[in-house]
Design goal:
Length: 421
């Protein structure tokens, strides 16, 4: 797949002393010029977030193959990384588009030439509606947005009445759950919304959407039963939508925690009509990165997917035998779905490590991590601790450039991933 001009231009961006974690010598060089010097991760300053190139390639291949084998398309959630270069990796691997969460994210994706976007949210802001109306003048651009109330539909109609709309806006009826997040509360309400969308002069009823991940936080029998029940109700809504709609349809669900249940529940409907005009779309965004925390514990693909991100922080204080303070904290690493976990220690990031047994990170401040152990910690001031991280969705927003190492034991930096938060 040809790389979009704007994506290629990222190699010409000039690095700055303000770019956290980069070596001082990188300042003033373009990304291309800096990578041409074959930098090593050991040069980078701590705190640091780094990615493993081999793990990224493996994960992109694994999740794409897994979807294809089950009759699913993949439109990974781009909000996880907000990195067009990483989106492109999955598009090149066979993803049919990118999922996003806000109008601003959609605008970023369009700047980088993403031609198929699923907005997993409602769109009611007049400025956002006007922007999308303008983008729909591109006949090669496909865009789908969610609705979950009559008020949302009316707000969209008001906004679109003020602009020139080249074609109707494709809308998916979102099913929610009582006590959950967004979405119509139950199949009967979703059916009423489908009827209202079908009657709209500016909207096209184009399918059914939902997010099962908010119904559970583990793989307990109660959580799995709740997810299965919800997905079965999504199929009920799909039948209603199919009876009302005119044209191709989408059914989309699937975060990174219960994607196996999505495939399981949807399988009979997919098998019954393999060419029945419905696209079955999974939106798993964390699968490209996986992690050493939340998703390692809940993903059914753990073992097939490999953690592709790692943190590095330096020992700056050793005030007690069982307490070490590291120079990375909430400003640098995710902590909302579990604290970082120590893996090993070395002289520098990416260097050969010795394992750290019995130690754990017990708290984070803005710029410190508390590493504790019941026994004396064998760490010297200045050593670097590598950290397994949990929840990639809150890792990338803390960094503008993230180094990608070659992987397979090599710490050579082969890419700087640019984020757009």
């Amino acid at each position: 797949m040809q790389r979009h001009t704007r994506l290629a231009e990222l190699a010409d961006e000039r690095l700055s002393p303000a770019d956290k974690g980069l070596p001082a010598r990188a300042a003033g060089l373009t990304v291309h010029e800096f990578l041409a010097t074959q930098p090593r991760l050991a040069e980078f300053w701590t705190p640091l977030l780094a990615l493993d190139g081999q793990a990224l390639a493996r994960n992109a291949s694994v999740i794409q193959r897994w979807c294809v084998e089950r009759g699913l398309e993949l439109m990974p959630h781009g909000k996880t990384t907000m990195s067009p270069a990483l989106w492109q990796r999955q598009l090149d691997a066979g993803a049919t588009g990118i999922t996003l969460a806000t109008p601003g994210q959609v605008r970023t994706a369009r700047e980088f030439g993403v031609a198929s976007i699923l907005l997993a949210n409602t769109l009611v802001a007049p400025a956002g509606l006007a922007f999308i109306a303008g983008e729909l003048a591109d006949p090669d651009f496909t865009f789908h947005v969610w609705v979950d109330s009559v008020e949302t539909i009316e707000a969209m109609e008001r906004g679109l009445s003020e602009v020139a709309l080249p074609r109707p806006l494709d809308v998916l009826v979102e099913l929610g759950a009582h006590g959950g997040r967004t979405g119509a509360r139950g199949a009967p309400e979703a059916a009423r919304l489908a009827e209202r969308v079908a009657a709209s002069p500016v909207l096209r009823l184009a399918g059914t959407a939902g997010y099962e991940g908010s119904l559970g936080h583990d793989r307990s029998p109660v959580a799995l039963a709740a997810v299965r029940s919800y997905l079965a109700e999504m199929l009920e809504v799909h039948e209603t939508v199919r009876s009302l709609a005119d044209g191709p349809l989408i059914v989309t669900a699937g975060g990174s925690a219960y994607l196996d249940l999505v495939a399981e529940v949807f399988a009979p409907a997919i098998a019954a009509a393999p060419d029945g005009g419905t696209r079955w779309i999974l939106r798993s965004g964390a699968s490209l990165l996986h992690d050493d925390g939340f998703y390692r514990g809940i993903s059914p693909l753990d073992g097939l997917l490999a953690p592709a991100m790692r943190g590095y922080a330096r020992v700056v204080s050793h005030p007690e035998p069982g307490l070490v303070l590291l120079d990375g904290g909430k400003r640098d690493f995710p902590y909302d779905e579990g604290l970082p976990s120590p893996i090993g220690a070395a002289e520098a990031p990416g260097a050969t490590e010795r394992p750290l047994a019995g130690a754990s990170v017990t708290a984070l401040n803005d710029q410190h991590a508390y590493l504790r152990s019941a026994a004396a910690l064998p760490l010297a001031i200045g050593e670097v601790v590598s950290l397994g991280l949990s929840h990639p969705c809150t890792a990338f927003d803390k960094w503008r450039f993230i180094p990608v190492v070659e992987g397979g034991g090599s710490d050579r930096v082969v890419e700087l991933v640019r984020t757009f938060f």
